[in-house]
Amino acid sequence: MSIASPRPSPVTPTIDLSAKGVQHGHLRLPYSRDDSAWGSVMIPICVVASGEGPTALLTGANHGDEYEGPAALFELACTLDPATISGRVIILPALNYPAFRAGTRTSPIDKGNLNRSFPGRPDGSVTEKIADYVTRHLVPLADIVLDFHSGGKTLDFLPYAAAHELPDKAQEARCFAAVAAFSAPYSMKMLEIDAVGMLDTTVEEMGKVFVTTELGGAGTATARSTGIARRGAGNLLRHAGILAGAPETAPTRWLDMPSDDCFTFAQDDGLIVFQHDLGEAVRAGEVIARVHPVGKTGLAPAEYQAAMDGILAARHIPGLIKAGDCLCVLAALREAP
Length: 337
Ligand SMILES: [Zn+2]
Prior knowledge:
- It is a single chain.
- The chain is α+β, with helices and mostly antiparallel strands.
- The strands form 2 sheets. It has a 15-stranded mixed beta sheet that branches. The chain has a 4-stranded antiparallel beta sheet with strand order 16-15-13-18, with no helix packed on it.
- It is globular.
- The site of zinc ion (ZN) has 5 residues, from loops.
């Protein structure tokens, strides 16, 4: 019995990914629907290539309500001059394009969470088809992958670039060297709640250098967080040798997520009242937040205490919280790797 080879991807790029110069086009994904019988999802893509050198893949809006990546990458696609580069930069500012247009984390078409859909399927949902094309046709072209995230509408983060602990320590060191070059105000050794289905895991398992970020959130981007994204993307291209010159480094504080004690989840619905703001130090046992029942007055709030010493690295947005929501994330200060 033979295993059937995978189907070809239904995605067609409208540009030649191997051509030199600057190209702006789309990944066209057929999507037949009520208002367009033979319609398509058109995902914007830009490729800038010149001379010999490595390939960087830069992606934003893997989640559709996170804006630093799209802001930095739509801008970079307008400004990157092929005369200044050695190699190739593949830019997808809005990878989950249907979600990005809807301003939602997941796709309005199929409710697909792109960063839980990898490696994807060529015969799956729209979101799974995007993941499959990235896995089989874009990541193999890349030496280094930068995937921008922030907290979206339900979390707010300290601005950090991050990499993961990996079984291949040489690869892990290359990833953390790239995080250092990014030069966000914070640099994180990141622990995932659930790494299955993430672009991160797919790229790392292919042996590539992978950098992710959490650069703010609350459903918007600020001038500061967008500036961090812009500088970080340029720094990564310099670090890879695609742009000339040394990265424009800035001071960074290294953080670690040493265990599940980092995460606090709400056990009650209610009004959240934080006792600390992002970046502030907390001690184990200290109250981080109280959640007040809102159905009537006179009921005592639930108290949520820090399970470890650390600083507040992420918090729930907006003011009301539901049982099961991530209330906050703590991180521990660590030495630079
Ligand atoms: Zn995200």
